Give the backbone structure.
Amino acid sequence: MSARTPSMYSDDARQRAARLGLRLGRPNLEEFAATLTEIAARDRNVMVVTSDSRGSGKLVGFGQRLPKQIVEVGIAEQNLVGIAAGLAATGKKVFAVSPACFLTARALEQIKADVAYSDHPVVLVGISAGVSYGALGSTHHSLHDFAALRAINNVSIVAPADNKETHAAVLYASQAVHPVYLRFGKAPMYDVHGPETGNHVRSAMVVREGTDVAFIAIGEAVIHALLAAEDLYDRERISCRVVSVPALRPFDQGPVLAAARECKALITVEEHSVCGGLGEACASLLLESGARTQFKMVAIPDEYTVTGSQADIFRHYGITMEGLARTAHRLLESI
């Protein structure tokens, strides 16, 4: 592995990824910026608005190539969303880029009223999401964004798992006629999908088949679930299904219900609070459908989050290959 290999993965996890032939790609944010730049170069109607986030959003190259298509508002997230909505009202396709923790908290009223309720097709781009800011602490963690935006009508919510999902997400958002929220972390990402995978993000995708345990995961958690599934099979012949859910809204229920019918246990995995995210969406779906399966949510508990790097926090809360394998093993033993 190259020097870019993130500390998110233990030596065993990196070796597992290597044996699977998984390629470590660039951070999803770099894929986002590259894809958006190419779209904007073809369509001068595409605009970017940032809140002192040109560098952290990997948009320096965009600004150099397309200086008339980027607006910098400074550290003023509410202004960011208001300006983006105003530009969208004139017919521009606007990508509003800001750290997820501030975009979906400080500017929540503007997102609700100016974007969602007014139905302006702004693409809200939350960068450095989840616990990407690590040791900067809870003020800089966005563990609330899924919950907050799921409670507001008319915002699609997409959190890509790898560069292929990211590319598809940016294309989808650029063509959307209603508001979209894109969520990105900072770390380089392994490629979860092969070349045969369709170029779409509105559907949940089975990236590994299995019948004992199903991991239902979103965003940066998907690769950890995939590595755990492979580890469990190699060590104990436990058959694990892995489902990547790029879109939390619209929520593709079919693969989740199929996993509940066909597997003995179901585990949701996300870089978000246990409150209001993928786990609760799946729990309510399973209860309403009458599905009977052992169920566990792996996410950040409803407590003061420990301080440390993103890797430290993932390890502490079991959002790793090793932690997820232990959780799956315990869940099967309880049946």
